[in-house]
């Protein structure tokens, strides 16, 4: 079974079947910013390449946002988030680090969570050396990147190494345990179908017992008190909607400040496909929430 999932995952990587080619109409603010500079950041799970986007100069040291792309922990293409990184750098006035974390089946769980956390820790500790304020740090991600974001925030809370001011969970993957066939999609042909979900999970976490680890399935954890404020975005037709909606409620019940937006009329990955005005509204919401978080005195 594991080998079958590995083969399927590699075919997905090779074919580009789920490549998200972002249309020009979804490229809003920040298109005039210079091309990002890439750096290599050491982690205990291997060196990670990150693209650094910088906002227009203001004379002040900007805060930093760490972005984690999606792709089911299998597809590895951080540049698909270029339009988001540029928009947030421009509209939230922050440096954006876009992480090229390693993916399955070549690199299984917990490689990606370790790399995601340690890059964030590096960004918090070394900001002064690179021109940003590491004490004003937020982290966010899309799909699998949303699940990684939740894991980063758990680890940071438990280790008390740094404190993200905001976590952005954009249609996140939060439950690797439940049978994908039980996850309700409110459309006949959801983007994340049960067979596709099984491939992603089987390649990423083939060990059934490890799927309950809170870094693999943050949505199943119950100890949520003390996590950073959250912006949780879910999509009406997405088969992952229910776990995202439930996590937003659980965070709020644990006393975590939460802004939750369930976006009507869209499926998974809508921030990369449209419709245009819906994407603009959500990217503006992300920027607004970042500006508010970064304005808090630390």
Describe what is shown at a glance.
The protein has 298 residues and is of the alpha/beta class. Helices cover 35% and strands 15% of the residues. The protein has a single domain, classed as 3-Layer(aba) Sandwich (Rossmann fold), CATH 3.40.50.1820.
Task: Report what the structure shows.
- 35% of the residues lie in helices and 15% in strands.
- The radius of gyration is 18 Å and the shape is globular.
- It contains eight helices and eight strands; from the N terminus they run αβββαβααβαβαβαβα.
- The termini are far apart.
- The protein has an eight-stranded mixed sheet with strand order 1-2-4-3-5-6-7-8, with helices on both faces.
- The chain has one domain (2-16, 63-294): Alpha/Beta hydrolase fold, catalytic domain (Rossmann fold), CATH 3.40.50.1820.
- The protein has helices at residues 2-15, 82-92, 111-125, 127-130, 144-159, 194-204, 241-253, 276-294, and strands at 37-41, 48-53, 64-68, 95-100, 137-142, 167-170, 230-235, 258-263.
- Helix 2 packs across helix 8 (276-294) and helix 3 packs across helix 5.
- The chain has 298 residues and is an alpha/beta fold.
Q: In percent, how helical is the residue content?
A: 25-40%
Number of helices: 8
In terms of DSSP E residues, the strand content is 5-15%
Mean pLDDT: 95
Any descriptors?
298 residues, Rossmann fold, single chain, eight-stranded mixed beta sheet, alpha/beta
List the topology elements.
Layout: H1 2-15, E1 37-41, E2 48-53, E3 64-68, H2 82-92, E4 95-100, H3 111-125, H4 127-130, E5 137-142, H5 144-159, E6 167-170, H6 194-204, E7 230-235, H7 241-253, E8 258-263, H8 276-294
Parallel strand pairs: 3-4, 3-5, 5-6, 6-7, 7-8
Antiparallel strand pairs: 1-2, 2-4
Helix pairs in contact: 1-6, 2-8, 3-5
């Amino acid at each position: 079974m594991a080998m079958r999932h590995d083969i399927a995952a590699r075919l997905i990587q090779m074919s580009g079947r789920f490549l998200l080619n972002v249309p020009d109409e979804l490229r809003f603010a920040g298109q005039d910013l210079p091309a990002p500079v890439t750096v290599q950041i050491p982690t205990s799970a291997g060196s990670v390449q990150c693209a650094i986007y910088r906002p227009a100069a203001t004379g002040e040291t900007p805060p930093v946002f760490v972005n984690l792309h999606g792709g089911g922990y299998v597809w590895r293409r951080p540049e698909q988030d270029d339009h988001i990184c540029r928009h947030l750098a421009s509209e939230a006035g922050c440096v954006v680090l876009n992480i090229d974390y390693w993916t399955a089946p070549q690199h299984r769980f917990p490689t990606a969570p370790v790399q995601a956390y340690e890059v964030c820790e590096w960004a918090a500790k070394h900001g002064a050396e690179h021109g940003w304020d590491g004490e004003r740090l937020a982290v966010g991600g899309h799909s699998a990147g949303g699940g990684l974001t939740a894991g980063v925030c758990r680890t940071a809370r438990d280790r008390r190494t740094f404190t993200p001011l905001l976590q952005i969970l954009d249609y996140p993957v939060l439950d690797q345990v439940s049978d994908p066939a039980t996850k309700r999609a409110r459309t006949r042909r959801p983007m994340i179908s049960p067979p596709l979900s099984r491939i992603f999970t089987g390649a990423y976490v083939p060990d059934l017992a490890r799927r309950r680890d809170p870094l693999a399935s943050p949505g199943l954890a119950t100890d949520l008190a003390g996590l950073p404020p959250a912006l949780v975005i879910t999509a009406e037709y997405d088969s992952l909607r229910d776990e995202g909606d439930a996590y937003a409620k659980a965070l709020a019940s644990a006393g975590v400040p939460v802004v939750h937006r369930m976006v009507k009329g869209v499926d998974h990955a809508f921030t990369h496909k449209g419709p245009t005005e819906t994407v603009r509204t959500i990217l503006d919401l992300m920027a607004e929430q970042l500006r508010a978080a970064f304005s808090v005195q630390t």
